[in-house]
């Protein structure tokens, strides 16, 4: 071989010798091409191809972030800088190894409030995002945020649905306090969509729905009223009571298993007019959060759901208000500054007037006699004061009072012959029933530092029910008067306080902890009866007043924790104790929520929840009524508790127009109570309610599907629920499992809201659910003696024979409601007309069933009763 050939051969050999034979330096040129691979894979390529070894601790350095990289003949140092800088990883050479350690970059905390620029209202759940770091947070329920970032953060992006986005320049290097105001865009369809709006797959919390005021205002109105609870009934997994009535039945639970909070204070009856209207005037509602499961640790005391309602704080800038009048009710609200940008107020009032409309008609035809009277109305009042002492201290004082009244007085007369003389006898019957809530809350927000926020709340809640009845019979000829009078009342009171802390140490942790104490006062049954007639008769009074006091103490802690770029967890525990009648019940309730981000921005979620409930609701029928009685756990009846597991998938489309969620759940419930047959707390012979109840178990399970369109001129959702709810009680249904009265196999909800130009808006909702189970006799036979029930149809005593409980399923329920609103902006005010039609195609949905007999054929058959036919309503409103 020639000399030239030998040299060429040597050069070729050198080119194929691995680099690590001769070593490497920062200027070494490398080539790496990867697509959607973790950083660790890039390090493995460099080690295999170029002999560059990496040394690091997996506990301190996270190389799981996926990257797409095309580097050809790039300097090694430049490649590593680009690769590790986004994760704050510092690298250095030690011998022949590259050592990776976390960068010791100094940090600072940016905190503050985000508010509406026009009214000064704090914005709940607004997004604060640092684009350069791809880190962010959201505001809490008082509009406060805290974000710990590196000192070289130069901008923040703030966004909130219904408001224009805001880019905040950050120039200071230390801790920074910001008061940020967002401009409302006027309507949902005008929102500028940003890339950082909070997406469904980015929320670890599952089984939660946030109801916006925009969606609430656009819903069809029943008898002219926008209704919070009725809108919640249109969500998957949530059912209502009788057709047109209120009440919530969430995932197979009863009405007593819902914790409804108004500015942090519990509500025990949240309906007017037997459930036809909600307790709250929607004009003063700021936000509504519904939790159907996966309850955060800060909530406790109920098994099925939490409805957290926050009212507006009052405009800090100028006086504004609303007034409306409809066919059944009228209302107004006004808000504004007492001291501009420092103190504000909110006041609202509402009253219905069916009694004013019907009384004139009743008295015109003398239906109730010459002195007859009819009353049926409700009213409610909301008041709130908000004062800012400093940027660190703020106080809220809120008050609610609402009451329903139903009264009837009828006067009749007859003529009797006594000893040949005709005498005039007068008969007066009186009936009065009233029920209502009183709620007060005092809250103090305090900021201890840029990362720690606290709220202290003192609250009081009471619910009372009372009924009076009388019968007066006057016989002048005999000089006698029979005057019978009876009354029954029940009362439930809560007073307590809680302290909540919100701590944001860094973007990967959002920690909440606190303590709650509550005193429960129960007076579930107080009845009396007496005869005040003449001549004086012995007083006959029965009083079975029951008074119980219970004390409850709870502690909680929870952490919303980002474990790695794809895995998130909400870990929490709620511990509580209840002292009643000398006995202490205690409970430790773990809470766990998990979220894992899948490819293409899908998220899979799972949750486990343990809940305890120390109070019960005694009800003898399938519909929530004011006569239902709240009672505590006692020596004989232990607290209820439930365990729920849920799993689901969720995704928000890239353009933020559509949201999809699918969830499945299983819930077991223990220590459920049911009235023993033929026993009722209102019986005058009753002693203790807990001697007349049966304790059992319950199960509910199912799946919920929801597809929602959130942007554009057309919005709405489609929801479907497939569910089962079962119960087992010893001594009922032979001790076997039976479908519960809240069991509804299929439930479909379709909601549409359509903007029609500048002035018109159309909305419609269609609801369908399977019939509910009821118990009907399988046969009957003729009875004997006075003890047998009397059948008015046949005029004969009859005895029904039953086999299983809830052995018949009633008719399916479905209904279409529509509404159209015309609004126009004037110079200083805005007017609107709303026309709504409830039950458009006049579906005769059942309220309850009973057995009826045909006097001709002597046959008995099942009859359904319906209450609400097609009902149009019109409302005129002004906003100034």
UniProtKB/TrEMBL annotation:
One GO cellular component term of this record is: cell outer membrane
InterPro entries attached here? Answer: Beta-barrel_TonB, CarboxyPept-like_regulatory, Plug_dom, Plug_dom_sf, TonB-dep_rcpt-like
Name the keywords, alphabetized.
Answer: Membrane, Receptor, Signal, TonB box
- Superkingdom, taxonomy of origin: Bacteria
Does Membrane show up as a keyword for this record? Answer: yes
Chief localisation class: membrane
Q: Where is the signal peptide?
A: none
Q: Name one GO biological process term.
A: siderophore transmembrane transport
Cell compartment(s), UniProt = Cell outer membrane
The residues covered by the TonB-dependent receptor-like beta-barrel domain are 419-840
Q: Does this entry carry the keyword Signal? A: yes
TonB-dependent receptor plug domain location: 224-302
GO MF terms here are: siderophore uptake transmembrane transporter activity
**What does the sequence similarity comment in the record state about its family?**
Belongs to the TonB-dependent receptor family.
Alphabetical list of PANTHER family matching this protein: HEMOGLOBIN AND HEMOGLOBIN-HAPTOGLOBIN-BINDING PROTEIN 1-RELATED, TONB-DEPENDENT OUTER MEMBRANE RECEPTOR
Tell me the protein's name.
TonB-dependent receptor plug domain-containing protein
Organism, per UniProt? Answer: Chitinophaga eiseniae
